[in-house]
Amino acid sequence: RCEYGDFVVLGGYPSAGKTALSLQLAWTQAKDKRVGYFSLETHPDKIMDRTVTAVCGVDFGRIKEHTLQDADWKEIECRSSAMVGRKLEIIQAGGLSVVDIQALALAGRYDIIYIDYLQLIPGDKRRSRTEEVAGISIGLHQMSQTTGITVVALSQLSRPEQGRDGVKAPTLASLRESGQIEQDADVVMLLYKEEDTPNSRRVLHIAKNKEGEQGKI
Q: What is the pLDDT of residues 43-56, one digit of tens each?
């Protein structure tokens, strides 16, 4: 169970679906909470396209290729009412530091913010990469505590290990470039493919939860 002021980390390998899952969570929460989605990797227009895909069930490929069909437009029209009034704002955050993100989060009066993703936030370049990422993690943890805003940071995982039965499931030790992330987070969720195939089901592993249960979905 998450509470306001928690620091939550959603980790996953590339193409595991971190952004898609985080957008679905943000969209659901934005029904009655103010949510800011800080994207350091993807342009806000593309993030909005993904949101339309999730809400309306329209094929993302047809949106990207500008080949929406009549049935797609009708589906968007039918579900457009669900998109009105959502308190979700997408912020282009490339180059923003932790201090910058905190200032914008307070100005936007957000209850929850998402950051896609942690390793792209610029830190102290005078330090080693491990120390730089550790400083970013500490900064996000302090932000959540001092402001009361729930901070959900997406995180890359280290390269997956190969086991006897294929790719091993990630663990807390898989959080990329710093063990400090594991220490700071109130909740750590790890998203990965059940099998090493493109259309595999995803597993969401609640690997750390200070105030509740752990397990897999």
A: 767 777 767 676 66
Helix (H) and strand (E) counts in the chain? 7, 10
Nearest to 192 by CA among 213, 211, 164, 166: 166
DSSP string, 149-208: -EEEEEEEBPPPPEETTEEPPP-GGGBTT-THHHHH-SEEEEEEESSSSTTPPEEEEEEE
Q: Taking a C-beta distance cutoff of 8 angstroms, is the pair 143, 67 a contact?
A: no
131 three-state secondary structure: helix
Q: Is the pLDDT of residue 136 over 70?
A: yes
State the CB neighbour count (10 A cutoff) for residue 7. Answer: 24
State the sign of the Cα–Cα–Cα–Cα dihedral 41, 47, 49, 54: positive
Please give the Cα distance from 167 to 179 (Å, whole number).
21
Q: What is the pTM of this model?
A: 0.83
Which residue in 136, 49, 50 sits closest to 101, CA to CA? Answer: 136
Q: Are strands 112-116 and 35-39 parallel, antiparallel or unpaired?
A: parallel
Short-list 34, 72, 36, CA closest to 152: 36
Helix (H, G, I), strand (E, B) or coil at 75: helix
When pLDDT is averaged across residues 2-28 and rounded to a whole number, the result is: 87
The residue among 143 and 125 whose pLDDT is bigger is: 143
* Measured distance CA(75)–CA(69) in Å, rounded: 10
Q: What Å distances lie between residue 179 and 71, 76, 94, 173, CA to CA?
A: 48, 43, 24, 7
Asked if 40 and 120 count as a contact pair (C-beta separation under 8 A), the reply is yes
